Amino acid sequence: MTIPTLHTYFRSSAAWRVRIALALKGLAYESRPVHLLKDGGQQFMPVYRALNPQAMVPTFEDEAGPLTQSLAIIDYIDETYPEPPLLPAEPHARARVRAIALAIACDIHPLNNLRVLKALRRQFGADDEAIKDWYRHWVAEGLAAVEALVQRGPGGPFCWGETPSLADICLVPQMANARRYDCDLEAFARLRAIDARCATLPAFAAASPDRQPDTQ
Hints:
216 residues; 4-stranded mixed β-sheet; 7% strand; Glutathione S-transferase Yfyf (Class Pi), Chain A, domain 2
């Protein structure tokens, strides 16, 4: 049985999520970098578009074929390799963890994705400061909601209880991106504490951008 391949970019939040999931499961994989800026964006090359028609990272490949979209990939990994679980066993708790993850992956991240920031500059003439203001606004609004959702949970060192879940997998890359853009995170004490706890775990450390073969 061959090990799976992850088409990734060291700084991509979506690829980072999948790297965390794979590390938490202890699964070996081949990292195949796709540079989002070089050569006009290697994700747009025909050979890669054949794998991922959206021309985005990540793409995960195993013997069953390619998969796209980070949360779909993580669901597949979690179902195929169930230990340790990335979602609670109880249905309502599972839904609440998914809600936290989706609030980040579907509501915060798309608005500050690289292609959106490029469009703000190209189509609407936004300068660097305007783009930073856009980024910080949506991060602050989104993380305020995530902070509230997490505070309604069962407590513990992670987003939902005593072990890392899909919610933490989504949170950590978003917090790192927020720091890159000098977002004010002072109001999000719970999220900052969770992020710091995750940073102590080997799986999260191994998945971080500075540990990837394509880090620049």
